[in-house]
Amino acid sequence: MYLLFSCIILFLGVPSVGSQNTGSFWHVTDFHFDPSYTSSRNSCHTEAKQRPLGQYGDYLCDSPYALINSSMYAMRDIEDNPDFIIWTGDDTPHTSNDNLDESKVLSMILNLTHLLMEVFPNTPVYAALGNHDYHPKHLMPPHSNPIYNAVADSWKAWFRNDVAEQTFRNGGFYTLPMARNGSRVVVLNTVYYYTNDKLTANDSDPAGQLAWLDEVLTNATLAKEKVHIVAHVPPGHFERHRTKYWFYPQFNKKFQDLIVKFSSVIAGMYFAHEHTDNFRLFYNQQDNPVAAMFIAPAVTPWQTTLPNMIGSAANNPGIRLFKYNRDTSLPTDIWQHYLNLTQTNMTNTANWQLEYKASEMYGIRDLSPQSLNQLVLKFKRQNSEEFRKYYQYNTASIQPGETCGELCKKVHICSITKIDYDDFEKCVIGAVSAATTVCDWMLTFVLLGINAVIALIAAN
């Protein structure tokens, strides 16, 4: 009976609680600036010379400066007074290490830093490093180095705190109290856990970051703080690839355990790296959703060279505005904006458009783990309109009519709900249609019973 009551509550929804003191913040990521992009010479680092290149970019290339500049000023035009900005890294192009060096990598990071400071001079920015923000790429050492130090010098105004600055210099991560109502941001260097970082594969805790995170979240619990976690490389499986995951397995497990352990203080988690628009849920041992992670689409439209992709390998450029409750720090809505690159290159005009509001498009009251879990239940249904929309937005509407078959849908949904690698495999192999879930069977039974009663009353 308790399970039946819980399913009915999930089906009907419950009123949202808390005040309506709504604020906003930006999440922008994966600029992948390509200084070699020159449309007049039909040239970018991938040497895509078979067709003319547009002023604002090409799906075979990384971002020209015009696209990056346009994205930042579009952010200002849309919301010029956000409470803060989250910037989750990857500033250099997808090119070989032979075409880069430490000086070039730093130049690109610092140029984009200065542009963001120029466009939003009075806004706090919480910035993380990506796997392309080091030379050689991916190979971030778990100790102080010239790149960490040079970036720390450039981000000093954003740190506002000597302790945060020092932990960044030592390992590329830090924590800061935020301005409003006892909230805190924790910026992690999850490149340490990335399978392409060969320096950390055999290290139980690179730079001591996991132990540090445990301590920070313990203190946040005692202080009754709400925490925003910010990083570049996400845990879990890539939803557009059957077998691709990013973290080394041991780090994926440790990170998942920490998030579940401290889920009561985590307001939200904001990641990047995949260039796609998706989210993931963490569940406790009772299989209740306890934490939500949001992965923002990239500014770069670059088509990945990863083989065996499921569906499109490129994306339209995206910038993301979150709405959140200032009193609770909990995110309440996503206002996703994008640039239709094909249309832009036809008109030579960058027209950033509102792609969707999550609350309106999906009919959810907020971005809590519970609301997103209800949305996943809707995704599981056959011919789910909610899933069709989600799949379209996953690549910032690059191919609105693209279909997602049975395996495609399984991988997407299992990626959302199963952070653990073994659980993901079991989910994909044993996935069944949404009609077979316990709640859906029970709700179907309840609705059939209601209809039978109505029919009986009508007959009399």
TrEMBL record:
Q: Name one GO molecular function term.
A: sphingomyelin phosphodiesterase activity
Enumerate the subcellular locations listed in this protein's record, separating them with semicolons: Secreted
Sphingomyelin phosphodiesterase C-terminal domain: which residues?
Answer: 288-428
Entry superkingdom: Eukaryota
Q: Which UniProt keywords apply?
A: Disulfide bond, Glycoprotein, Hydrolase, Metal-binding, Secreted, Signal, Zinc
Which positions are annotated as binding Zn(2+) 2? 90, 131, 232, 273
- The answer to whether the entry has keyword Signal is yes
GO terms in the biological process aspect are: sphingomyelin catabolic process
Residue limits of the Calcineurin-like phosphoesterase domain?
A: 25-275
* Annotated Zn(2+) 1 binding sites: 30, 32, 90, 275
Q: Where is the signal peptide?
A: 1-19
Cited InterPro entries: ASM-like_Pdiesterase_prd, ASM_C, ASMase/PPN1_MPP, Calcineurin-like_PHP, Metallo-depent_PP-like
What does the cofactor section's free text say about binding? Answer: Binds 2 Zn(2+) per subunit.
Named cofactor requirement(s): Zn(2+)
Q: Which family does it belong to?
A: Belongs to the acid sphingomyelinase family.
* Name of the protein described by the UniProt record: Sphingomyelinase phosphodiesterase
